[in-house]
Amino acid sequence: MKDDTIIKDRNTRSEAIQRLMAFGALIIIFIGFSFASPYFCTFRNIIGILIAVNGLLAIGVTFIIISGGIDLSVGTVMTLSAVMSGVFITYWDLPVPLGVIAGILTGCVAGSTNGILVSKFNIPPFVATLGMLNMARGFSLVISKLSPIYFALEKSVSSIAMGSILGTVIPGFDVPNAVLILFGSAIVASLILSKTILGRYCYAIGSNEKAVRLSGVNVIFWKTIIYTTAGLFIGIAGVVIASRLNSAQPSLGLGYELDAIAAAVIGGTSLRGGEGTIMGTIIGAFIISILTNGLRIMSVPQEWQIVVTGFIVIFAVYLDILRRGTQL
Amino acid sequence: MGELLLLMEEIDKSFPGVNALKKCRFELKAGEVHALVGENGAGKSTLVKVLAGVYTKDAGRIVYKGKEVDIPNPKAAQLLGISMVHQELDLMPHLTAAQNIFIGREPVRRWKIILDENSLNEQTERIFDMMHLKLEPRLKVANMSVANQQMVEIAKALSFNSEVLILDEPTATLAQVEIIELFRIIRQLRDRGVGVIYISHRLEELQELTDRITVMRDGLYVDTVQTKDTNIDQIIKLMVGRVIYESSPELPKVPSKETVLEVKNLSRNDVIKNVSFSLKQGEILGFAGLVGAGRTEVARAIFGADPFDTGEILVKGKKVNIKSPSDAVKNDIGYLSEDRKQFGLCLGLDVETNIAMVIIDKLTSFLGWIKNIELRSIVKRIVDKLSIKTPSLNQKVQNLSGGNQQKLVVGKWLAKDTNILIFDEPTRGIDVGAKSEIYKLLNELAQQGKSIIMISSELPEILRMSHRVVVMCEGRITGELNYEEATQENIMKLATLRNSEKVILNN
């Protein structure tokens, strides 16, 4: 009993250390770039960092990784969501809210499809979502006939993410809605994970799926719900990126999935399932966004930015392994 | 003992290629502890899994409280009041005790989705109190001892207000003190009228705990006997259909004087504390202690699987530097893990490949081409020597019985001709018949001059096999007993010696 308590302290401490380390890294990178370039720590630039969709995708993928799965399709599903919004709003000339709902629903449908493939048909998540990656990408190109779908200016799709509700309440504080959407989503996702049954099953299934099934829980149903929830946030990301670009770009999206997974992992989500937090994921997403942004401001060629991101992911995972201690 | 609670009749269950149960029967009364015994593969686990809704029966009927019932899934069993504690602990290590116990039945507050964590922990506390268990509901299961994890499983089973509690090999991973605690709780449940189905390989336990014993063999029901009217030998006879077990220990041959392995002042933070001992040629050195005493940790440190902070290891008088398992192997040390399925074998590969793995580097020609004929003859020789029962060398290892798998692991090290062998729980999960074969094998190896460290949590096994016994507690060696001094009582005293006081041994 006494031993257990000691171990408990040690364990929670090491979890806290990971989060602190990630947060510390974020601060250090931030300060570093601030000194390196006068253009970095400006209101405009920081807003630019905060409106990246990477955070939303990472939130979605965190649910799935905690439950012991993986989702490679987040980037192209996001694009498909954007394209569906475009179809509703521009092709069919329907009201903007309908287009928004269509985009988000597209994410949910793709997510639940992934979920059913994984849970009901026992297809390994890697394979199922790799297939979904290609299907979503293909559908986007087919539906859009290979060219971007632009939104008419009077439809004001761009004000969904780029308008500023905060700016109208507090004059001069023009934080775009995209930032609100990101933080709002993070809070909701965090509450789902910590306070609801869905969150509990997410951790439980990731920790020991067989045990959960033997406890009489309908694992097929809950896994589908988990993937669908992830799809919800990915759909939101699709609407945000459509709004930001004021168009749906069907060729976009490839490679986003890796940044999202990297964000979750840097934030302490275990690829083996069972642990992770939205807070960590958001920190991880900011680390990646700031790195890309900072390197760009310092005129580092884009090719090298990609190399750096790759290195950071490996380094973060290595730190995580050191923290856990090696096991034969 | 009360009225008839449960009756299973004419139960059939087959899996692809195997008839696991053939017209099986089993009955359980309220307020009895009813043991279910049989060799591995006799169908005990399959039978109780049918009852717990893990498997569905092909034929037969289950009558529960006078009514015929259908149990299609685990949930249905739980709703009827039938719960099972599985052999492999089925817990979620990342969740707390309370979260584990109420998985699938979480108390909710608003809109039926918001969890009520307080009520969860309070209910769990109540169950723990009822079991007289001092355990914190908010503690993560990953941070508990195996024994406490077992208790969480039992608490979970009880939380359904179960009237039938199935325990599948609950003591396999527990040490003596913890077993006593478990038995106390089982008796308490029995006195409250719960019917307990108890599966165990440790036949010595049955006399102490159970009221009746049902024996199964090859998927068939053999007999049900009153525990007080029977003895171990009779049970074994029913189990195997022949007498094999000699319960008296064989007097081991005295080993030679030459020391082959010496460990001096081995330490690693809190886990291993200043451990020193020596091993002679041809000796079987028993390592006794409670689960978590640090025996496996010492073994893994010697084998290079875990690092150590300070200390020396000497092989045949020469100091060696062991940083990894491959260093250990070069120095003639082999380690046979307690978890052979995870660390000892590639279950999906065949017998030949598993043995070949350790010697293949010596049997290759130009560009790594494998000399197949030579390899095959070596493998064949080992399989024959250990009398591993396999239809062919190309049989997948997962299809072999536990005893034969264990022999195969031994075979790997024999192929390599390793002289110092560390056996970690060599008979865990192995049935009685295979157990005595493993014992025989260990004795033969020792007689051939191999030196053996045998870690075991089963005292009878330690007493029967060891020339000398080293006892550990909380990472320290608390005593060393020679063959004459080694008694259950003395070992238990040393194994529970939690501070540095000396004990007086009874001879």
Write structural notes for this entry.
The complex is a heterodimer of chains A (328) and B (507). Chain A has one domain. Helix content of chain A is 75%, strand content 1%. Chain A has helices at residues 2-36, 43-50, 54-66, 74-91, 96-119, 125-144, 158-162, 165-169, 177-195, 197-214, 219-245, 256-266, 278-297, 302-324, and strands at residues 149-150, 247-248. Mean pLDDT of chain A is 88; it is low at 1-10. Chain B is α/β, with parallel strands linked by helices. Chain B is built from 17 helices and 20 strands. A 6-stranded mixed beta sheet of chain B has the order 6-7-8-3-9-10, sandwiched between helices. Chain B has a 6-stranded mixed beta sheet with strand order 16-17-18-13-19-20, sandwiched between helices. The radius of gyration of chain B is 24 Å and the shape is globular. Residues 243-249 and 500-507 of chain B have low confidence and may be disordered. Classes of the chains: A mainly alpha (328), B alpha/beta (507). The A-B interface holds A 1, 3-5, 7-8, 11, 195-200, 203-204, 206-208, 210-217, 274-275, 328 and B 54, 73-75, 78, 86, 90-95, 99, 103-104, 106, 108, 113-115, 134-136, 139-140, 142-145, 148, 156, 300, 305-306, 325, 343.
Secondary-structure blueprint:
The complex is a heterodimer of chains A (328) and B (507).
Chain A: H1 2-36, H2 43-50, H3 54-66, H4 74-91, H5 96-119, H6 125-144, E1 149-150, H7 158-162, H8 165-169, H9 177-195, H10 197-214, H11 219-245, E2 247-248, H12 256-266, H13 278-297, H14 302-324
Antiparallel strand pairs in A: 1-2
Chain B: E1 4-15, E2 18-29, E3 33-37, H1 44-51, E4 59-64, E5 67-69, H2 74-80, E6 82-85, H3 97-101, H4 117-130, H5 146-158, E7 164-168, H6 176-191, E8 195-199, H7 203-209, E9 212-217, E10 220-226, H8 232-240, E11 259-268, E12 272-280, E13 284-289, H9 295-302, E14 310-315, E15 318-320, H10 325-330, E16 333-336, H11 340-344, H12 351-359, H13 372-385, H14 402-415, E17 420-424, H15 432-447, E18 451-455, H16 459-465, E19 468-473, E20 476-482, H17 488-495
Parallel strand pairs in B: 3-8, 3-9, 6-7, 7-8, 13-18, 13-19, 16-17, 17-18
Antiparallel strand pairs in B: 1-2, 1-4, 4-5, 9-10, 11-12, 11-14, 14-15, 19-20
Helix pairs in contact in B: 12-13, 12-14, 13-14, 14-15
